[in-house]
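Narrative of activities, Objective 1.

The group set out to show that a structural description can be obtained from nothing but a protein's sequence at a throughput compatible with the screening campaign. Below is one input-output pair from the validation batch, recorded exactly as produced.
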Amino acid sequence: MEKVRYVIVGSGWRSEFYVRIAKVLPEQFEALAMLCRTEEKARLMHEKTGVYSTVSRSECERLKPDFIVVAVDKPSIFKVSRSFLDKGFPVLCETPAGQNIEDLEDAWQLHCYGTRFQVAEQYHCYPQYEKILEIVKSGVLGDPHAVNLSVAHDYHGVSLIRRLLGTGFENAFFTGKRYTFPVLETADRNGPVTDGSVTDRYRIRMDIEFDSGKMGFYDFCNVQYHSRIRGTDIRVQGERGEIAGNRLAYMDQEKICHNEIITWENPYERQGLTDDEAAIAKILAGMKRYVNTGEEVYPMAEALQDAYFALCMEKALLHPYETIQSQTQMWGY
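Output recorded for this entry:
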């Protein structure tokens, strides 16, 4: 496999994922440099990661990376991505591609004009969800008609729901509410939390009814990514069976019932990469393939639909108990 070489724009928590992948899998990936906003940040990131870090964009461009990874704060993602696209660099940006409909429309226009622009939506590449998607596509459940998902937030959750149901670019009705509950803090990005603190955390429940009648039941609490007392849950139902967590139950064409444990494997677990990092590694390899062949990693139209649906969800939360309807966008087909 030809080595994947990239420059990382950004120096936050998310950017370090791309550094770790290159360090653990040096025969496959190479982080050429990190582009930081200040000299002090560049110095700190170099000391922390060992990757060449600079504030000079021209230095990064002269390294001739296969593509640029844009991992800056969400409000800046589209602007920074566009600045590199305008200079002819392929760009893989963190989610979402834009935070308003105007940015999403501009992103689609850039894509249509031939810029090499992709979004690093990784959840469908998690080993577990990749396996579940494989089972759903095999048809053993029949046509999936409902998904209960408490796994990931906003566009990530919507991405999984749409893929599991196979709804493509169908429009949908959104009805939901944000609730607040006290939760004991047990862990965060930096590790265990043991001070006994209890904080108010939001929980969102959202019904997403597609034009076909298929249903996505979205449930997410903003503590569950790291919490040791809040888990994840996924259930996919079709007329012939269902997936519930790691269990598969279905009746085959010979009317024999099956109850099985679903197993999956992180291909990089021995190297110490998490499922999230393994998924990002797959996206990075796919981005290299996209640059070389034009085969999209996660089609831009899909990424924009996910981001647009997240905007619909936000609007629904501003009007609890009211139904918000999506409209077909320029990337829908």
